[in-house]
Structures are given as C-alpha cells and as structure tokens.
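Lab notebook, design round three. We kept the backbone fixed and only want residue identities now. Task for the bench partner: fill in a sequence for the structure below.
Input structure tokens:
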C-alpha cells in the first residue's frame, strides 16, 4: 500500500526511552514516546496527527465516561530476526474495531487512517520495540465519544488514539482459573463479541472475588444456564482432550480473538484435530476428575499462550499436568513466536512490515 495520507508529526523533544529497562518490562506501565490522534466530527474523520504521549483535555460530559461509548483493540509489533519491525495481523484488528464500532453506534475507521497511522507511529517509536524473547511492543488502539452532552444518545464526535507500550509476558506464572457460576460477563445478544470497554469494567468485580480466593482468572460460562464455557476475560480458552483441540464456538457473547484464530489455523497446519463447538463445564470437569484433560490454556494478544495449571469448580481445585515439551500448547506457542519474529516463513501473510 502506498502511504498517501498527510499525517502531521510533532516529535518529542525529550524521549523517555532511557527510562526503559529491557530486563524488567512490566505489562502496561510504561508508554512509548508518541501517540496517534484522530478526531471525528461533522460526519468525517479529520487529519491524523502524531504527538508526544501525554494527558489530554476532554469534556467531563462525554458519553464514554457516562455511558461507556468506548471501544479498544490490542495487537503487537515484533522485532524481526533481520532487525526490522513487523506488526501481527493488524487488519484483523481494524475489522474487529469496526465491528465493535457498529455495535456501539460509533463511526467506522477507514483502513488508510488505521494502517498508515499505525505504521508511521511504529516507525517513529521503533526503538521502543523490545527484542528479548517473548517481549513485544503492545499496541492499544481505542475510540471514545467526545461530545459535551449528557443526554443518552450516540455522540456526534469521537477521538481515535493509538498508543504503544513495550511489554513482556502478561501472566508470569501458570494460571489458576475457576468456573464462574453466578456472575455473567455477557449474554447472547449483548456486547460480548465487541471489544467494548464496559465488558471489561463489568468483569472486574467477579474477577476480584476470584482473585481473593487465589485464582488469576475466571472461566466465564453462558448467561442462561452457566453450563457452557465462553472465554476467560483477558483471553479465549482452549483444551486438549483425547488428542483433539477443543474450543468454544464463537457466539455474540464471545470475543472473536485473533490469537484464537491464529492458533486454530496453526493447529490445522500441524494436522491436529480441531473442534469448535459448545464445551460444557460438565465435560471439562468430568475429564478433570478422570485425569484425562491433557491441556488447558488461554490464548490472547496480551496473554499469548497462557498455560492453565489449576481449574476450580464447586469449591474443588483440579491440577493439570505440566505441559511436556511436545505438548500442543508449547509447540503452537513456539510456531507463533517464530512467525512473529520472522524466524520461520509467514505462510499465511500475517506479518505487516513497518
Ligand atoms: C489483549 O489481549 O490485547 C486484550 O485486550 C486483553 C486485555 C489486556 C484487556
């Protein structure tokens, strides 16, 4: 694609890069020097500009703060074996952002603004892309309402921003998760498939209760019967049972994860049997009780491939065996990392050079 969009760039006079300690990168605490900002008003997206990362003024009456008219995305850029930088499946994120925007009555973002803005931003902050194993530049695009109006109706104006942060692993240990059998993350017909800010805010209280019981995350179940597994809050969830990779089929209450999509593709490539279907908690608990559940793991941009070590159900904890070196989750994690860092061929055309 030829970059044709005018993007005004105001580069920082004082880079904070020297504050970054590559050996101790914590997820989401440190932000790169610049951000892309694009406003929408009068029915059109305005000229994008890149400026130093920092605070900004917004109307205290905006509908994002009061009614949750806010959506976001998460993707990553990787340091390549040849020293360049490439972004993993960015167009998939744009398409999901626009699906979320439609659900939340927000304007679609044009591809040239997203792609050119993203590339310019990452080019400018390329020195922030960490090159340690497992590290990456996390990219957070988001859009929110900006009208100064407190009536309940979609805003007429919006702001779209992308900022980035160098990150290491999100979960530093194998996870303890438990089934959620009381609270609901999303119901069929709700906003669960969208990356709407409120989905995450609403999940914090049940997650906090689980954390107080010693779990890292919840295994959300369906809103009507609490029987079928949906996802795990910061990630989709997968199981290996009888040599088959099983994951809940997508629905309007489950996020269509891009890592999920990629892992399913790689499983097909590896000849692993795959089932996308309803997965009942009874089936998983029975396999845990019988000791036949081979693997359980979360998949997400931030989470990457996160091993689940313990599953709690009805007050009882079931431990899973530590995945062996040839376990599917380990093999797929290595295959994904090799594609992302350019050390193995990108057969599906997932990487976009900066
Ligand atoms: C991501 O994996 O990018 C997410 O958005 C999950 C979480 C950090 C909110």
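Proposed sequence:
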């Amino acid at each position: 694609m030829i970059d044709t969009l005018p993007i005004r760039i105001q580069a920082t006079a004082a880079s904070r890069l020297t504050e970054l300690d590559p050996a101790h990168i914590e997820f989401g605490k440190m932000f790169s020097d610049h951000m892309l900002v694009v406003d929408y008003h009068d029915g059109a997206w305005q000229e994008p500009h890149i400026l130093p990362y920092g605070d900004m003024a917004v109307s205290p009456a905006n509908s994002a703060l009061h009614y949750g008219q806010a959506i976001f995305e998460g993707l990553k850029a990787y340091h390549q074996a040849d020293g360049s930088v490439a972004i993993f499946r960015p167009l998939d994120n744009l398409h999901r952002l626009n699906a979320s925007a439609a659900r939340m009555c927000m304007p679609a973002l044009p591809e040239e603004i997203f792609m050119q803005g993203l590339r310019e931003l990452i080019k400018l902050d390329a020195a922030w892309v960490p090159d340690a194993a497992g590290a990456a530049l996390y990219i957070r695009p988001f859009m929110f309402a900006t009208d100064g109006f407190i009536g309940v109706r979609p805003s007429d104006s919006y702001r779209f921003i992308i900022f980035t942060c160098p990150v290491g692993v999100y979960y530093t240990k194998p996870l303890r998760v438990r089934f959620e059998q009381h609270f609901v993350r999303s119901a069929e017909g709700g906003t669960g498939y969208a990356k709407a800010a409120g989905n995450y805010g609403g999940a914090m209280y049940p997650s906090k209760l689980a954390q107080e019981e010693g779990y890292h995350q919840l295994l959300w179940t369906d809103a009507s019967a609490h029987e079928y597994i949906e996802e795990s809050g910061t990630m989709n969830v997968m199981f290996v049972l009888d040599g088959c990779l099983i994951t809940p089929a997508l629905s309007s209450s489950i996020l269509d994860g891009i890592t999920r999509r990629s892992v399913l593709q790689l499983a097909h490539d590896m000849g692993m049997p795959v089932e996308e279907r309803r997965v009942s908690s009874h089936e998983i608990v029975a396999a845990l009780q019988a000791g036949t559940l081979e693997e359980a793991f979360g998949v997400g941009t931030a989470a990457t491939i996160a091993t689940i070590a313990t599953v709690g159900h009805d007050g009882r904890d079931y431990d899973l065996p530590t995945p062996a070196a040839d376990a599917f989750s380990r093999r797929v994690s290595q295959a994904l990392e090799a594609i992302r860092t350019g050390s193995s061929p990108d057969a599906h055309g997932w990487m976009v050079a900066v």
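Keep this in mind before ordering anything: DSSP finds seven helices and 18 strands in the chain.
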